[in-house]
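#struct-pred
JK: can someone run the complex with iron/sulfur cluster? inputs below
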Amino acid sequence: MTDSRTTLTNLHPTPPAAKSLETSGFSQTGTPAPSSLLNRRSPLADPQAQLALLEQVPLAADSGDFDATLAAHGCATLTPQSLEIFQMNLGKLCNMTCRHCHVDAGPDRREVMTRNTVDACLRALDQTTAHTVDLTGGAPELNPHFRYVVEECTKRGKHVIDRCNLTVLLLPTMDDLPHWLAERNVEIVCSLPHYRRRNTDAQRGDGTFEKSIEALRRLNAVGYGDGHPQRRLTLVSNPVGAFLASSQSKLETEWKAGLANNYGIRFDRLITLNNMPISRYLEWLQESGNLNRYMELLVNAFNPATISGLMCRNTLSISWDGRLYDCDFNQMLDMEGALSDGGSTHIQDFEPTSLSARQIRTARHCFGCTAGAGSSCGGALDT
Ligand code: SF4
Ligand code: SF4
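RT: done, structure tokens with the ligand placed:
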């Protein structure tokens, strides 16, 4: 923890000050959020305030209720299917302060999963059928127990995913990490909003693109991105502005050519995500006057073909402090899993049977998962 803080200070001494925002896309001048909502004492740091703001968006009476929309398409209740993905959020600490962050992560956040909670997660994992452990954050690599979690999960034969922001790999303490992850067949899922410098820097801050390209080169150098099934390099793109994600397959072709021709970078697949109208992205939507339009866009683009693949149906999301949620978004909104028997939803009391019988909690933000081709941690749902 201490080491990470020291290194972070070196990489990002002072986040740049906020500048004005354009109306439909992020500013092109590279303006990460000045700090987390929590640090700025923004009212939107409170999940209840986020949910209330979303509920206040004026939408046609019959269109703004997510459960009613599901019911109208034959899904009376949203329930889990068999558990496939065990997603551990290792903390809110991050070396970046992206404007669109749904976690409100940043260098000023200090919440990280403890070894005790990590061990409780591993005991719980052993009671499940999950084949994949998805490590997310913040920057999961900054958790002091990151390598321990990876080792323990690979020992158990699990497919491990590291959700990596790329720039973290340039920290001096991370020099050996690409090679270390490659040796353990960890899939790297990297955020890179765009293959063009301008768009990526607009969302994540000036200089991010260059660092990301350098990190991708290091991953390529240890065998990631060459079609090796156990060294899969996945890029994640989300729109730079108040738009829906574009076609995943079309973008993948374009990105492969763009990164290969301009930078000699290789990767295996691209997944696209919609921006979820919560946390700092919600703040940006509100400040830029895009909130109503974006919510209308999400609601009007509801796609029933996405319902069966919603990630809350095959994933369990565990927060840095060991609480259990239907998905990472519900986690950020403090909507803890609802057990029908009213039992505890803490990892220390993990009980797979009652968890699998829970009803998934929903609210208006869920329209972000069902809009267009759909959106999940695994990318589009209706490809
Ligand atoms: S979007 Fe990712 S890289 Fe950016 S601040 Fe949030 S957790 Fe960090
Ligand atoms: S936000 Fe979570 S609970 Fe809502 S539809 Fe998406 S995955 Fe499911």
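RT: quick notes.
The chain has one domain: 2-370.
The two ends are 41 Å apart (CA to CA).
JK: thanks, will look after standup
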